[in-house]
Amino acid sequence: MLKLVWEIAPLLLMILSYGIRAVGLFSVRTFDPVGAAKYPLFLTLTVAILSIPIAIDSIRKMEKIETSEVREPVRRIVLIIGFTAIYLCVLQTVGFVISTPVYISALLLSLGTRKTSAVLLVSLGATIALYVMFVCFFGVLLPEGLLGAFFQ
Question: What local confidence, expressed as pLDDT, does residue 100 receive?
């Protein structure tokens, strides 16, 4: 039962929070009957419905689980949630360019990656790719943080 809770709870929390946010978008008025505002709700419902077989399968396998098998995944989930919370708190102050590679590096190290070169390449590469994608292609302004003075 404990494994089921730790496997399904984060997924259900994400679906619930996304769904709550999607429902808040219904106040947007569009001429399109489907509209962009209904897409997040559709996505939430689709993920929720597709999660039902996973939950049923986990319930069926519950009897075979030992408590020692649960500790490591629980530790990883707690670390990921903690790193994500810290990242979201410092993103505006520190900025995207500094906080994102630190966040990705922390996640990779907590998940067991031990090659320093791989951690550095992935974290810097992902940061550069995300920055180029959002700033150059989508035109989204990312938080500048501490480096904001250098870009003005």
Answer: 94
